[in-house]
Design brief:
Length: about 375
Amino acid sequence: MYAPVPMVPGPVTVHPEALAAMQTDLPSGDVDEAYFALYGQTGRSMAPLLGVVDNSHDLVFMTGEGMLALWSALKSVIAPGDTVLSVGTGFFGDGIGDMAEQCGARVERVSLPHTSTIGCGNSLARIEEAIKRFRPKMITAVHCETPSGTLNPLAELGELKKTHAVPLFYVDAVSSIGGTPVLAAQWHIDLLLGGSQKCLSAPPSLCFMAVSPAAWAMAAEVNYQGYEALLPWKNVVAEKICPYTPYWHGLAALNAAAAVLLRQGPQAVYARHAKVAEACRRGLRDLGLPPSVDDDAVPSPTVTAAYLPKGVTYAQWAGQLKESGLVIAKSYGHLDGKIFRLGHMGTQASMELMNKTLAILGQALEDL
């Protein structure tokens, strides 16, 4: 059912230009070389949004939502017995460590409180100590931890990776790319993972990766051959062949969505996200619904997590808001039933939508 005030943290409302791109009757990329021209163009459009500089990384586009990229990257570079340092500030960050274990890795975890971000307290010292002691093959982190509404600063973590010669740095940036600066080259990221359905405002049909030369070399060494394998995508444009049937319509939609952000100007887009996010947090505090982020932590510019009103279950709260046209999201793990979330990303990073959201929340509190 159509939601007049859709504020879920993805999939977000699809941008009209992305929808229009999907309306074109396109053939199969298996039989038409024009697909590969679009593939290359989409990579060039996305590169500035990923912080890819001077061809520092190759861009790969796979049919499937963001989790496909997360699994593909892990399975493609991790062999049984490899060491992975999982740095987590919430459900998804800690979950990457669980995924790495499923790939046979030996995992060391630095798990920080969900209300904090990397850099708070002595967290960097803890991480550096773990690097020195554990000598990981790869460090993993989530940029935007959506269940907690936080944004992890990654520059210093990338410097630790470089200083201590950790071979690979793996980053889930699914909920941040297109909504805040993401700098793959500057932050020494080897596998930067994203999805089409968040800040880019395209359908949940594609995932993508920025892959460094070091990551390609490791993928060649591991030589994983499953359906989600990364290595077969290395020479897609040069060889004009995909590992499986490509989704031309989805790629066209993502290319159109990226073009919108480039036309608006990435810095202007990031400033819009930051402005709406600050209005959200300020408005929630005024309503007595404080965001679940420590004062010294970095709040996310794309999603805000706040505590439920006292004595109200998530189901009651979400149902009451939906009657007024506002659709929200729950959280996960130990935050399930304690937190509700508002996604102000992509097309939903709108002051008009945020003003409507806060008005509905205020009326709902009065009606409790």
